[in-house]
Design a protein that fits this description.
By secondary structure, the chain is mainly beta. 11% of the residues lie in helices and 55% in strands. The protein is built from one helix and nine strands; from the N terminus they run αβββββββββ.
Length: 128
């Protein structure tokens, strides 16, 4: 019976099943964005927190407006880089966090026929 428990334990470790990777990154992103009613790109610094408790989705918290976004990004790759995406009816979000350099890019592209979106890059701090 002890061997069975040992085999199950080793299987869980090697298959990474049952052990969620929790992480939380606070990122200061130099962001370019354009609203659909504007005709010029605007630059601002955005402070966003990206966190995951289950290694499947990432939540986004915007410090400027003190608000968590309702949409979550689906984790596609979780290695030296984290790649997460969200596809909605009119938009695509892409997040890449480079764990080796503590940098991130976050982009939001709209596919609704209007000229608007955002692209940010910057440094992150891993809180976990």
């Amino acid at each position: 019976m002890k061997k069975l428990y040992l085999y199950v334990f080793l299987l869980l470790i090697f298959c990474n099943v049952g052990f969620a990777k929790n992480y939380k990154y606070i990122c200061n992103l130099d962001t370019q964005f354009i609203n659909k009613e504007d005709d010029k790109w605007i630059n601002k610094n955005m402070k966003l927190t990206f966190s995951s408790n289950n290694n499947e989705t990432i939540s986004i918290f915007d410090h400027e407006i003190d608000h968590s976004y309702s949409k979550k990004l689906d984790v596609m790759i979780d290695d030296d880089q984290i790649l997460a995406v969200s596809f909605e009816e009119n938009s695509i979000d892409i997040l890449v966090i480079d764990r080796l350099n503590d940098t991130a890019t976050y982009s939001l592209s709209y596919i609704d026929g209007y000229k608007h979106g955002q692209y940010g890059f910057g440094k992150c701090t891993n809180l976990r």
